[in-house]
């Protein structure tokens, strides 16, 4: 299975964080080596690494890189001050995936507590924690896969959007984790992958990942989903999430909302697969989820080729919000919840 993020210990004793450059897949498998928190922040912002859980894991490693850069700083107060800047830099990269902020707030009490220790101890402790976040994410995904696969029929035809696979997580995937879980349980699974305009995570990454695992996958453009559903070719839609509000409203890759409405129209269950690190109890409904807007160039160009007139006005939101009422169930590592059950579980019913 492909891997998005891993560490490499160098001869000088330093640790580097290596990322497969997801901007170039599937045509080129190039590794980006991050030696500083600044390089990691750039990698997240520029989408070398992407996908909510993978962004969180990368940010945690970014914190560890930041501490490693402070090897010459012995004064705990100075260390804490400089780590606050590291955290701010990483937090400013992408606004929607809550896993980023979840991971940063898991790292913070640790670097605050260990500030008086030696530079070596600080760095080792923070890299260990970032690795634990990654390992824990893989374990959560396997549970999501196991709970989720039970919802699928013996012969499953699944439509998915964007990439919620091994590349978007510590490994195994959320939506693709459910698909992998079903394959491992001996079910016959065929996948339709939406290409996912404009960034093509479905065409470039999901198709690549599933083909590498020899899971049958058929690529369609986003606008073909309605016809594929109308023709009875899909019996489940499964997507990942970037942020799930307390009432179950879910932000995910642009185009997800439309798919959910289509699934409802055609009587097809619509599942969101995500770990609890993607659930944001502090955001009551989808209305207040911050939605990232990205460069117009992603819409006007295909690679280096201009596809639209010079100077054209472009709207390019990277995510949309699917209202909870369209979501059949949210598949988590703690089990399968309806949006209402999830709200009750969080102790904050939707408003
Ligand atoms: O802009 P991206 O590629 O980071 O968006 C990714 C998605 O929308 C995924 O579906 C989501 O993060 C879930 S990944 C398990």
Secondary-structure map with pairings?
Layout: E1 5-9, E2 15-20, E3 31-34, H1 37-45, H2 52-69, H3 76-91, H4 98-113, H5 119-149, E4 155-160, H6 175-184, E5 188-194, H7 201-212, E6 217-220, H8 225-230, E7 236-239, E8 243-245, E9 250-253, H9 256-265, E10 270-273, E11 279-280, H10 297-300, E12 301-302, E13 305-306, E14 319-322, E15 329-332, E16 335-337, H11 339-346
Parallel strand pairs: 4-5, 4-7, 5-6, 7-10, 8-11, 10-15
Antiparallel strand pairs: 1-2, 2-3, 8-9, 9-14, 12-13, 15-16
Helix pairs in contact: 1-2, 1-3, 2-3, 2-4, 2-5, 3-4, 4-5, 5-6
The structure holds 5-S-methyl-1-O-phosphono-5-thio-D-ribulose.
**Whole-Å distance between the termini?**
41 Å
Identify the CATH homologous superfamily of the largest domain.
Translation initiation factor eif-2b, domain 2
- Which secondary-structure class do the elements indicate? alpha/beta
Task: Tell me roughly what share of residues is in helical segments.
Answer: 25-40%
CATH architecture call of the largest domain: 3-Layer(aba) Sandwich
The description of the largest β-sheet is: 7 strands, mixed
Bound molecules: 5-S-methyl-1-O-phosphono-5-thio-D-ribulose
Global Rg: 20 Å
According to CATH, the fold-level topology of the largest domain is Rossmann fold
On the 0-100 scale, what is the average pLDDT?
Answer: 97
The total number of structural domains is: 2
Shape: globular
- Total strands: the figure is 16
How would you spell out the order of helices and strands? Answer: EEEHHHHHEHEHEHEEEHEEHEEEEEH
- Tally of helical segments: 11
- What is the CATH class name of the largest domain? Alpha Beta
Q: How are the strands of the biggest sheet laid out side by side? A: 6-5-4-7-10-15-16
Residue runs with pLDDT of under 50 for 5 or more positions: none
Percentage of residues in DSSP E strands: 15-25%
């Amino acid at each position: 299975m492909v891997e998005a993020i891993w560490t490499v210990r160098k001869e000088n004793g330093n640790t580097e964080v290596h990322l497969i450059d997801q901007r170039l897949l599937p045509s080129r498998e190039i590794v980006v080596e991050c030696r500083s928190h600044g390089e990691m922040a750039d990698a997240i912002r520029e989408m070398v690494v992407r996908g909510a859980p993978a962004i969180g894991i990368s940010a945690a490693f970014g914190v560890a890189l930041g501490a490693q850069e402070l090897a010459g700083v012995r004064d705990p107060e100075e260390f804490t001050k400089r780590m606050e800047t590291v955290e701010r830099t990483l937090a400013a990269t992408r606004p929607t995936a809550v896993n980023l902020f979840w991971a940063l707030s898991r790292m913070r009490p640790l670097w605050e507590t260990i500030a008086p220790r030696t530079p070596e101890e600080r760095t080792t402790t923070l890299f260990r924690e970032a690795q634990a976040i990654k390992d824990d994410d893989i374990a959560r995904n396997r549970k999501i896969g196991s709970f989720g696969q039970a919802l699928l029929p013996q012969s499953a035809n699944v439509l998915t959007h964007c990439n919620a696979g091994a590349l978007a997580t510590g490994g195994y995937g959320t939506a693709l984790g459910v698909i992998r879980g079903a394959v491992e349980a001996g079910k016959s699974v065929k996948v339709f992958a939406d290409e996912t305009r404009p960034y093509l995570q479905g065409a470039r990454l999901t198709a690549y990942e599933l083909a590498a695992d020899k899971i049958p996958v058929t690529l369609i453009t986003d606008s073909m989903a309605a016809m594929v559903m109308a023709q009875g070719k899909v019996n489940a839609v499964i997507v990942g999430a970037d942020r799930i509000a307390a009432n179950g409203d879910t932000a995910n890759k642009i185009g997800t909302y439309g798919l959910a409405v289509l699934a409802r129209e055609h009587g097809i269950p619509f599942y969101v697969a995500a770990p609890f690190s993607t659930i944001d109890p502090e955001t009551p409904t989808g209305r207040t989820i911050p939605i990232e807007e990205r460069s117009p160039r992603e819409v006007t160009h295909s690679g280096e080729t201009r596809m639209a007139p010079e100077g054209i006005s472009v709207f390019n939101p990277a995510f949309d919000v699917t209202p909870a009422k369209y979501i059949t169930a949210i598949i988590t590592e703690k089990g399968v919840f309806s949006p209402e059950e999830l709200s009750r579980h969080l102790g904050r019913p939707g408003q």
